[in-house]
Design goal:
- A 7-stranded mixed sheet has the order 14-13-10-11-12-15-16. A 5-stranded parallel sheet has the order 3-2-1-4-5, sandwiched between helices. Strands 6-9-7-8 form a 4-stranded antiparallel sheet, with helices on both faces.
- It is built from 14 helices and 16 strands.
- The chain has 3 domains: 102 residues, NAD(P)-binding Rossmann-like Domain (Rossmann fold, 3-Layer(aba) Sandwich); 67 residues, ATP-grasp fold, A domain (Dna Ligase, domain 1, 2-Layer Sandwich), CATH 3.30.1490; 184 residues, 2-Layer Sandwich (D-amino Acid Aminotransferase, Chain A, domain 1).
- Helices cover 36% and strands 24% of the residues.
- The N and C termini lie far apart (74 Å).
- Strand 11 and strand 12 form a beta hairpin.
- It is of the alpha/beta class.
Length: 397
């Protein structure tokens, strides 16, 4: 009938508009996906893309997300969801039962909570024979008094808490004195119900971190996969991606598959491993149950993990893809690289290697057919560069 809206079959909903959200949008758009909607808590780089149908700022709560999903459902029969941060994942889990009839949510709702817990991830490593660092859980004040791991020690929340609470992502304790100085702060968080992991620090810089990325469907099949390594991190060796490549030994694929299958994980997952030069093993640091900032490495080397999820959500055949390993491909977030160059002494060699020594170098947020996200990111980068320079001048004084 004229004047009546016809409900469309499906759409894609990307949650989060940072680099990883934009990379999801790029890959899906390149594969011909048109109806892409973006939600975020603030207007970030992906919101300026010409590849999305629309953008909306939302509150990052389960209630708000549920309401917004129902609004989209008035227009589309099915919503295929791609979360790009942990809080979106948690909120999707909270409303899973209410939305599963019209949303494709890429998680195993039966074990999501335990698989998100880093201590449980290490317990699975023990069962499955996957190497991991010496670790102790800190769930109460008494645990702080008996860590019994050789310093230096890395302390991090069991689950990502920095997105919803003012909790650090990680801190390094060099000795007993550092622990004493941070005890009051840690006790405050413990009293608020936050638990932590204390882990030995595996020696090596940000170039020792490797990852397996796979998409495992709800029938337990890994439909596509790729491996790679971080070349550097930001703002330090315990930070986030700065540059990455498609290099990795086959043991990363073997261990990654073992974890996805042994833990019965659904959706896109990324176990990260750090090479320990002391014994030659690749030890799990964490498993991320979503797309990360450097996941475009897979797409650039011939494996479309995001598109694999999209096809699987629609019940379509997903063709197996072999990752290109004969060519050295670098994926660089120039914003992080420039700030590292300014603020980290001796970084020039790493900077040069990451940008100029590959067979191909691709820059995050840059797309000549979609320049606005890159321009917006450059404006933000300029401000960050000025702040980094000011900090360096202040330190010199």
């Amino acid at each position: 009938m004229r004047g009546m809206d016809i409900k469309k079959e499906h759409c894609v909903l990307v949650l989060g508009g940072r680099v990883n959200g934009y990379s999801i949008i790029q890959e899906l758009h390149e594969k011909g996906v048109e109806d892409i909607i973006l939600f975020d808590v603030s207007k970030r780089v992906a919101a300026f893309s010409n590849k999305i149908k629309r953008y909306k700022t939302i509150q990052n709560t389960a209630e708000s997300l549920y309401s917004e999903l129902n609004e989209i459902h008035k227009e589309y029969d099915k919503i295929i969801i791609f979360p790009s941060d942990d809080l979106y994942l948690e909120n999707l889990y909270k409303i899973y039962d209410e939305i599963q009839s019209f949303c494709f949510v890429p998680i195993n709702s039966n074990n999501f909570t335990e698989c998100s817990n880093k201590y449980v991830q290490y317990e699975y490593c023990e069962k499955l024979g996957v190497p991991y660092p010496k670790t102790k859980q800190i769930a109460n004040r008494e645990d702080l008094k008996s860590i019994n791991i050789q310093y230096p020690i890395l302390i991090k929340p069991n689950k990502r808490e920095d997105l919803k609470l003012k909790v650090f992502r990680n801190i390094t304790l060099e000795n007993e004195s550092d622990l004493h100085q941070r005890s009051e702060e840690l006790e405050k968080y413990i009293d608020a119900g936050i638990s932590f992991l204390a882990s030995e620090i595996i020696p090596g810089d940000g170039s020792c971190i490797y990852a397996y990325v796979g998409y495992r469907n709800k029938n337990g099949e890994i439909l596509n996969e790729w491996t790679g390594k971080k070349l550097s991190q930001f703002p330090d060796d315990f930070g986030v991606f700065s540059s990455a490549s498609n290099e990795a030994p086959d043991i990363i694929r073997v261990q990654g598959r073992t974890l996805l299958e042994g833990m019965n994980i659904y959706g896109i997952a990324e176990p990260e491993f750090k090479h320990d030069c002391r014994d030659g093993k690749y030890k799990l640091t964490e498993i991320n149950l979503r797309s990360m900032m450097w996941h475009r490495v897979g797409n650039l080397s011939g494996v479309n993990i995001q598109y694999s999820q999209y096809l699987d959500a629609l019940g379509k055949t997903v063709s197996h893809q072999d990752q290109l390993k004969s060519k050295n491909i670098h994926f660089v977030y120039l914003k992080h690289e420039i700030i590292n160059l300014i603020s980290r002494p001796g970084y020039y060699k790493i900077f040069y290697h990451n940008i100029f020594t590959s067979d191909e170098t691709h820059f995050a947020t840059f797309d000549k057919k979609d320049l606005k996200p890159f321009i917006v990111d450059c404006k933000e980068t300029s401000i960050d560069i000025i702040n980094a320079c000011l900090r360096k001048l202040k330190i010199k004084r």
